[in-house]
Amino acid sequence: MAGRTARNALTRDGVLDTAAALVREHGPDALTMRRLAAELGTAVTSIYWHVGNRESLLDALVERTVTELGTLRPHGAGPAERIVSVAVLLRRALRERPHLVAMVHERGLTERMFLPAQRALIHEAHAAGLRGARAAALVRAVQFQVVGHVLVERNRERSPVQSPAEPDLWAPGTAPDAAGADPELAAALAAPIDTEEVFTTAVRALVAGLLS
């Protein structure tokens, strides 16, 4: 009777929500049925009732991640703004789900995951008057810009502490000659990097060039 009550109190979506949170914070290896049951305050058998075994649970998380990345909706006044918005939303989605995206990749579903974003970009490319190879070039360039930027960001975050650090390299009196003649440039390069601003600036320039 208690087992039935526990199962009824849970939902499949609730189990997947908690499992996804564990993976996001600690990685797939941290997702054990015992730990998930502890997080949910229920018995392991109750989880099996809703999602099956661990492999079935991982498959469900992968499918959910693919579905979530299909809900990105462009916004903006014109094709250029909407293309940039797709890139920004896609970068954010990938940044928020690194471990889940890695699981999608390991299961060979990466191309399917990116398909909705590609369709949105195709729609905006057509709206901007691009067809054929030119439209395809825009779709690929934007997708590669997003993925490449995310990989660079993650690499910077995981890299060991650098000595000298970037601000030290551009400090007054130590900056290279070209920057030494431009104190404002040196100060800007010594400041903390706003990776989102760098990304948006690069995507806007890329899109403007491809649409011109």
Fold and architecture overview:
There is one protein chain. With 212 residues, this protein is an all-alpha fold. The protein has two domains: 2-52, Arc Repressor Mutant, subunit A (Orthogonal Bundle), CATH 1.10.10.60; 71-211, Tetracycline Repressor, domain 2. Helix content is 75%, strand content 0%. The protein has 13 helices and no strands. α5 (54-68) crosses α7, α6 (79-96) runs parallel beside α9 and α9 (132-158) runs antiparallel to α13 (195-211). It starts with a helix and ends with a helix. Residues 1-8 have low confidence and may be disordered.
Question: Which characteristics define this entry?
Answer:
single chain; 212 residues; mainly alpha; Arc Repressor Mutant, subunit A; Tetracycline Repressor, domain 2; 2 domains; 0% strand; disordered N terminus
CATH architecture of the largest domain: Orthogonal Bundle
Helix/strand order, N-terminal first: HHHHHHHHHHHHH
**SS-based structural class?**
mainly alpha
> Major sheet, described briefly?
none
Query: Could you please say which CATH topology of the largest domain applies here?
Result: Tetracycline Repressor, domain 2
What's the CATH first level of the largest domain?
A: Mainly Alpha
Helix count, per DSSP? Answer: 13
Low-pLDDT ranges: 1-8
Number of domains: 2
Mean pLDDT: 89
**Termini, distance in Å?**
68 Å
How many strands in all? 0
Strand-helix topology:
Blueprint: H1 2-9, H2 12-26, H3 33-40, H4 44-51, H5 54-68, H6 79-96, H7 98-106, H8 110-127, H9 132-158, H10 166-169, H11 177-180, H12 183-190, H13 195-211
